[in-house]
Amino acid sequence: MSNPNQRHVISALVQNVPGVLAHISGMLASRGFNIDSLAVGETENPHLSRMTFVVVGDDRVLEQVGKQLEKIVTVVKVLDVSSRDYVERDLLLMKVKAPAGNARSEVRELVDIFRGRIVDVGPDEIMVEISGRENKVQAFIERMRPYGISELVRTGRIAMVRSASSELTRASDNAASRAAS
């Protein structure tokens, strides 16, 4: 039985023409599918864009979303990334209250722990950039709440399937480490 709250990461390679985003998001909305996260950007081919989005639902929802996407003429290819070995990232920019003194030092230390970067400094707040898996970004947000978040913006999730050679290398490394145990 599939999980009705499962998060599916879907990648759609689409023609880079005006209106594709509106068409796809409108089609999904009209059929009652909620997009939890969405990121769109160009690819190595200037005629194609990649849409990466997250939908929540069971396997039936995933199947229906895939079928609907494949019907759209401007969609070249659809891939359920979450069914494969993949790397994902979110990007966050945040302004957090950090007046000079202990609070600023604590925020800087947390930024370092989360492997973020301070990208702007004001008299009473700093702007931080964090990238990583969704749960890392969310954990950082929760750690910053007590200091006071002035403004926050984040991208949708982007994801890419690992190459076959790295999958084989990882499988070989895992097998070797199990054999050594």
UniProtKB/TrEMBL annotation:
InterPro entries: Acetalactate_synth_ssu, Acetolactate_synth/TF_NikR_C, Acetolactate_synth_ssu_C, ACT-like_dom_sf, ACT_dom, AHAS_ACT, AHAS_small-like_ACT. Keywords: Amino-acid biosynthesis, Branched-chain amino acid biosynthesis, Transferase. CDD domains: ACT_AHAS. GO terms for biological process: isoleucine biosynthetic process; L-valine biosynthetic process. The keyword Amino-acid biosynthesis applies. PROSITE patterns: ACT (PS51671). It holds the Pfam family ACT_AHAS_ss. It catalyses: 2 pyruvate + H(+) = (2S)-2-acetolactate + CO2. GO terms for cellular component: cytosol. Residues 9-83 form the ACT domain. Pathway: Amino-acid biosynthesis; L-isoleucine biosynthesis; L-isoleucine from 2-oxobutanoate: step 1/4; Amino-acid biosynthesis; L-valine biosynthesis; L-valine from pyruvate: step 1/4. Coiled coil: none annotated. Its EC number is 2.2.1.6. GO terms for molecular function: acetolactate synthase activity; acetolactate synthase regulator activity. Belongs to the acetolactate synthase small subunit family. NCBIfam families: acolac_sm, PRK11895.1. Catalyzes the conversion of 2 pyruvate molecules into acetolactate in the first common step of the biosynthetic pathway of the branched-amino acids such as leucine, isoleucine, and valine. Dimer of large and small chains. This is Acetolactate synthase small subunit. It comes from Rubripirellula amarantea. The lineage of its organism: Bacteria, Pseudomonadati, Planctomycetota, Planctomycetia, Pirellulales.
